[in-house]
């Protein structure tokens, strides 16, 4: 196996600004980019070239708070040629690519968005080396969840990973910023999850009423308003952590779909995939990838 750039990251020229007063994002950008037209600034926003602290932001009316850092990728040509927007590659070899995805970036295409996704960008990236190269989705992270995500570079590797997921994957650890003060140091939630016609996941205590899901959690830190939990998945069901945190009575911050009242507290969903550890599909080597807990999670729960 040939390793390539295990700490590879493509960087574009970017501008960073620290917010000094409450202001809507578009107004702020028009002030700091006074040489650009309103339409030009709107385009930069729409393309996902603006990040706030640890997430991509595209809403014109997003309310900035003092102390936040706004980063703007400023070179439009670089976007097309050299830059991975909303993600960075933390490991690549002949079989897999592991990325750190920012909140706000889709894993795969939807009806509304085809190009600004992790999969599409990685497909473009590998084709630069060889037009025949491809990338395949092994698992997904929700758009508003950040953290470690893996892709396969062949159909064979993808199938091997998916068919043997429980045996190959050794650890999946998340951190969740949740509402309220969690008083229990550690625990777990067990229920059966099923999906409604409107794609909402429901949790049931009736055995076999859906797919069995088990989530373990441990308290990292808390104050009266927010708690930071380390969460480990024993099973990997759709929206599992989000539903189980609602079951716990402490919904994930920013998760209106599953009971959050504090949906503007950090400007994003309070969920981050911190650790992914698995046996390499070809070499069987045990690999572990870890990303930093977003600063906004730590600040809110301290």
How many separate domains? Answer: 2
Distance between the termini: 43 Å
**Oligomeric nature of the chains:** single chain
Overall pLDDT level:
89
Let me know the number of strands.
17
Characterise this structure.
It is a single chain. The chain is α+β, with helices and mostly antiparallel strands. The protein has two domains: 14-163, RNA-binding S4 domain (Structural Genomics Hypothetical 15.5 Kd Protein In mrcA-pckA Intergenic Region, Chain A); 169-273, Pseudouridine synthase. The protein has eight helices and 17 strands. The chain has helices spanning 25-32, 38-46, 76-81, 118-129, 155-163, 165-168, 240-248, 295-301, and strands spanning 14-18, 23-24, 50-52, 55-56, 63-64, 69-73, 87-92, 96-101, 136-137, 146-152, 169-179, 186-195, 201-204, 211-222, 226-233, 271-279, 286-290. Strands 7, 8, 9, 10, 11, 12, 13, 14, 15, 16 and 17 form an eleven-stranded mixed sheet that branches. The N and C termini lie far apart (43 Å).
Write the layout of secondary structure elements.
Layout: E1 14-18, E2 23-24, H1 25-32, H2 38-46, E3 50-52, E4 55-56, E5 63-64, E6 69-73, H3 76-81, E7 87-92, E8 96-101, H4 118-129, E9 136-137, E10 146-152, H5 155-163, H6 165-168, E11 169-179, E12 186-195, E13 201-204, E14 211-222, E15 226-233, H7 240-248, E16 271-279, E17 286-290, H8 295-301
Parallel strand pairs: 10-16
Antiparallel strand pairs: 1-6, 2-5, 3-4, 3-6, 7-8, 8-10, 9-10, 11-15, 11-16, 12-13, 12-14, 14-15, 16-17
């Amino acid at each position: 196996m040939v390793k390539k750039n295990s700490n590879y990251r493509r960087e574009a020229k970017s501008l960073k600004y620290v917010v000094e007063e409450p202001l809507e994002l578009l107004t702020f950008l028009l002030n700091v980019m006074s040489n650009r037209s309103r339409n030009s600034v709107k385009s930069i926003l729409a393309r996902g070239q603006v990040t706030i602290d640890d997430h991509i932001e595209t809403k014109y009316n997003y309310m900035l708070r003092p102390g936040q850092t706004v980063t703007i990728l400023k070179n439009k040509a670089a976007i097309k040629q050299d830059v991975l927007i909303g993600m960075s590659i933390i490991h690549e070899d002949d079989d897999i690519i592991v990325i750190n995805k920012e909140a706000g970036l889709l894993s795969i295409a939807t009806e509304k968005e085809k190009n600004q996704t992790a999969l599409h960008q990685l497909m473009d990236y590998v084709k630069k080396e060889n037009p025949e190269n491809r990338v395949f989705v092994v698992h997904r992270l929700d758009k508003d969840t950040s953290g470690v995500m893996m892709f396969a570079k062949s159909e064979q590797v993808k199938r091997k990973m998916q068919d043997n997921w429980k045996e190959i994957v050794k650890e999946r650890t998340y951190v969740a910023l949740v509402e309220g003060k969690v008083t229990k140091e550690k625990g777990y939630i067990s229920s059966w999850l099923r999906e409604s016609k409107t794609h909402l996941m429901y949790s049931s205590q009736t055995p076999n009423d859906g797919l069995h899901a088990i989530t373990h959690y441990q308290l990292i830190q808390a104050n009266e308003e927010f708690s930071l939990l380390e969460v480990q998945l024993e099973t990997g069901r759709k929206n599992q952590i989000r539903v189980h945190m609602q079951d716990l009575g402490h919904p994930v911050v920013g998760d209106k779909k599953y009971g959050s009242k504090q949906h503007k507290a950090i400007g994003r969903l309070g969920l981050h995939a911190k650790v992914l550890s698995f046996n390499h599909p070809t070499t069987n080597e045990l690999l572990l990838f870890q990303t930093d807990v977003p600063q906004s999670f730590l600040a809110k729960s301290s």
